[in-house]
Design a protein that fits this description.
This protein has 511 residues and is mainly alpha-helical. α1 packs antiparallel against α3 (86-109). It folds into three domains: 28-215, no CATH class; 227-299, no CATH class; 319-509. It has helices at residues 28-62, 65-74, 86-109, 113-161, 163-171, 179-202, 206-253, 256-262, 266-269, 274-298, 301-348, 354-357, 369-392, 396-433, 439-464, 468-493, 495-510. The protein is elongated and about 180 Å long.
Length: 511
């Protein structure tokens, strides 16, 4: 019998002698012996690959590795995460790894070194890289373990302080963000990020390693600033809330709310008291100062410089805004007092009977003329106060706008006063002329009243500044039309009288 073929590597496992097949030539017999050994190795490898792949899939399924890995990658709970079929992937990798070795043995057995050598070199590189993969897996598992333990310790520790419940009570409702889980997740992913360069270094992936190392270095460099900014923000927020509570309670105890109700400022505040408004203003100012400090601590020039400049402008504008608010509040209190005084005085002197004197009907349930006069007085005082308040804001354009509106309103009020006086005079003239009671007197009284109303209407519109040229032209045309109509009527009606007078003059001249 010919000696057995010496196979390198794993092929030596199948180098046992196989008796030659009877009836074959001496040259074919070694090939057939190698083919039989290769087929046996391929069959055994295939069966072993199926067995190992099945065991790997079953073991990973029992350990629920796919669902756990899905939750780890997505940052969600294992039940909510999308399932990653890691069991199938691991089984396929195990199957084809064993099959590659079986194919290599088969190629060596049949003497196809030209095909087996590249495959053997490929498997050698994989086996040489396997320790790196194993080290990376160990580092990944260690990172996951450390991150999970730290996250668990942090969340459990914060739960003892009930930060979520306290934050919800401070916000006046349920907290939209779970602070414990948020901080735990931040620390969890930060630890994984810190372990990532070691994992890439174990895999000898120098290309992705350098930018990640730079990113990690920047994160580590920024961590002290971020921590300091968060600490400053938390302290500022706590101080702002404390000042708001203390100031609100102090002003409420001092009777500021009752004073505001007495001077009529409760309507401005709505459902909130003056003490609450003052506390909220102090709270906002402290938060603005805190935001400036936080942005300065972060040292992000592209964001901090414009944001700090904007907040500084807001902070500088706050005294002017407070001054304007104080002016308006004092003016409103004085205006309410003066409006009530004017309304009571006019009501006492019979001003409410003015509509009857002007010939206007009395409306049941509407505000009385004295009340309307009081409201007009309040509006006038508030307009002057608004001019002073806006002038204190140091905004010239807005000051000019309000001053112009005040001028227009004054013109409208004077025009309305002129029309009211004219309406009174028109009704007075009507009553005087129509006093005889004849038909001609009544007609003449109507004409006189209409003429006076048209005249004072034109004067009122001109005083209001509503298209004065058009008003003058229309009034002139109406007056001219009336004059022409009167002349024509007089001429047509006195034609006979004029002819008789003319004949008399001619006869006298002939004599």
């Amino acid at each position: 019998m010919p000696p057995a073929l010496a196979l390198p590597g794993a092929a030596a496992l199948y180098s046992a002698q196989v008796p030659p097949i009877p009836g074959t030539s001496p040259d074919v017999a070694p090939f057939l012996n190698g083919l039989v050994r290769g087929l046996v190795a391929l069959l055994v490898g295939w069966l072993l690959a199926i067995l190992v792949a099945s065991v790997v899939r079953h073991l990973l399924s029992r350990l629920d590795v796919g669902r756990r890995l899905s939750g780890w990658l997505s940052g969600q709970s294992a039940n909510d995460a999308t399932l990653v079929p890691i069991e199938n992937w691991a089984g396929a990798i195990a199957f084809w790894t064993i099959m590659l070795f079986a194919i290599l043995v088969f190629l060596d057995a049949v003497g196809l070194q030209a095909a087996s050598t590249p495959l053997q070199r490929f498997l050698g590189e994989i086996l040489g890289y396997a320790p790196r993969i194993f080290s990376a897996l160990i580092l990944t598992a260690l990172a996951w373990l450390v991150a999970t333990v730290v996250k668990l310790l942090l969340t459990r520790g914060l739960q003892r302080f009930s930060l979520d419940d306290r934050l919800a009570s401070q916000m006046g409702g349920s907290s939209p963000i779970l602070l414990n889980e948020t901080l735990g997740n931040i620390l969890y992913w930060l630890i994984l990020l810190l372990f990532l360069p070691f994992v890439l270094d174990a895999l000898a992936l120098q290309g992705p390693l350098e930018p990640i190392q730079g990113a990690v270095a920047q994160v580590l460099e920024a961590l002290p600033r971020i921590f300091k900014a968060v600490l400053v923000g938390a302290i500022g927020w706590f101080i702002a809330r404390l000042v708001r509570v203390v100031l609100t309670n102090f002003l409420g105890s001092a009777g500021v709310d009752r004073l505001g109700y007495r001077i009529g400022l409760s309507g401005l505040a709505g459902t909130q008291s003056l003490s609450w408004i003052a506390g909220t203003i102090a709270y906002t100012v402290i938060l603005i100062v805190t935001a400036i400090s936080v942005l300065q601590e972060l040292q992000i020039q592209a964001i901090s410089e414009p944001a700090v400049a904007m907040l500084n402008e807001i902070l500088l504008a706050i005294p002017y805004i407070l001054r304007a608010v104080i002016i308006l509040a004092i003016a409103y209190a004085i205006g309410r007092f003066v409006a009530n005084l004017v309304s009571n005085f006019l009501s006492g002197v019979g001003f409410n009977n003015m509509p009857l004197a002007l010939g206007l009907p009395m409306t049941v349930g509407a505000k009385s003329p004295s009340d309307i006069a009081g409201i007009i007085t309040l509006v006038g005082i508030m307009l002057f106060a608004a001019i002073a308040a806006i002038d204190s804001l140091k905004v010239p354009e807005l000051t000019a706008l309000v001053a112009g509106l005040t001028t227009i309103l004054g013109q409208v009020l004077v025009g309305a006063l002129i029309f009211a006086v004219g309406l009174y005079l028109a009704n007075l003239a009507y009553r005087v002329i129509a006093m005889p009671g004849s038909r001609q007197a009544t007609l003449l009284a109507q004409v006189a009243r209409l003429a006076i109303i048209v005249l004072v209407g034109a004067m009122a519109l001109q005083q209001m500044g509503i298209a004065p040229d058009i008003v003058n032209l229309a009034f002139g045309l109406i007056l001219g039309a009336v004059a022409v109509a009167s002349a024509i009527a007089f001429g047509l009606g006195g034609r006979d009288v004029a002819s008789e007078q003319l004949r008399e003059w001619i006869n006298n001249l002939k004599r």
